[in-house]
Recover the amino acids of this structure.
């Protein structure tokens, strides 16, 4: 999964001239990399991740995902790519609290039209993979923070994405759970999944070859 961004800008509407959250960001991430994005609060990390993940559009610039120019894709091609190629993990989990862990993991497969038996088997396998065997029927509110985040990683893996985008996935977790989440992401990267992770954890940025440091909507060189 390669990501190539050239001179991306993002101006949020509001005020007289809007708020420039990205002011010309260019970089590439190659297939199989583990890239860590760091920078002070408000510097544009989530904005950048949301654009990479096709959840939001830049105001100007170029972005190609696996060699495809994202702007020449139709809305439905973009939403297919988001569903089939990209898995998201958020700081606040974004799980549905009234559904079981298993059903939360099933959701993306339901949207992809996977057969119900196959979907449930795969969701159970993914929950086992992230160390949650026996917790399939619990709802998020019956799980610890670290366990919730592992459910959301299993959900991110549901449609076998080639890219995982994680926005401060350990931001709400204690250090032991954080370590487990980071280990899980490293393991997935070892299996060939490209990972882009936003974090405030400086130690983590020392462990990866690829660091993207941001400040005030720009890359810090
Ligand atoms: N929907 C929005 N509308 C207007 N301004 C926004 C919106 N989202 C973000 N911003 C502004 O854009 C800038 C970048 O925000 P962003 O969320 O990308 O920062 P961040 O680096 O992820 O910060 P944090 O580390 O606190 O999560 C901030 O100044 C923020 O106030
Ligand atoms: Mg953010």
């Amino acid at each position: 999964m390669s990501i190539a961004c050239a001179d991306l800008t993002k101006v949020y509407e509001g005020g007289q001239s809007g708020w420039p959250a990205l002011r010309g960001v260019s970089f590439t991430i190659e297939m199989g990399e583990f890239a860590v994005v760091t920078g002070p609060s408000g510097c544009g990390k989530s904005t950048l991740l949301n654009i990479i993940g096709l959840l939001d559009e830049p105001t100007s610039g170029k972005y190609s995902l696996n060699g495809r120019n994202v702007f020449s894709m139709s809305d439905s091609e973009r939403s297919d790519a988001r569903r089939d190629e990209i898995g998201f993990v958020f700081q606040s989990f974004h799980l549905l609290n009234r559904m079981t862990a298993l059903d939360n993991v099933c959701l993306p497969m339901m949207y992809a039209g996977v057969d119900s038996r196959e979907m449930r088997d795969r969701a159970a396998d993914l929950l086992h993979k992230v160390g949650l065997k026996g917790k399939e029927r619990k709802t998020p509110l019956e799980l610890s923070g670290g366990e919730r985040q592992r459910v959301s990683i299993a959900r991110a893996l549901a449609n076998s994405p080639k890219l995982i985008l994680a926005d401060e996935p350990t931001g709400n977790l204690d250090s032991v759970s954080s370590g487990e989440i980071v280990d899980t992401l490293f393991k997935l990267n070892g299996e060939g999944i490209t990972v882009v992770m936003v974090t405030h954890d400086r130690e983590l940025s020392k462990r990866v070859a690829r660091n993207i440091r941001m400040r005030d909507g720009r890359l810090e060189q």
Q: What stands out?
A: The chain has one domain: 3-219. Residues 12, 14, 19, 21, 39, 41-47 surround adenosine-5'-triphosphate (ligand 1) (CB under 6 Å). The chain has a mean pLDDT of 95. The domain at 3-219 is CATH 3.40.50.300 (Rossmann fold).
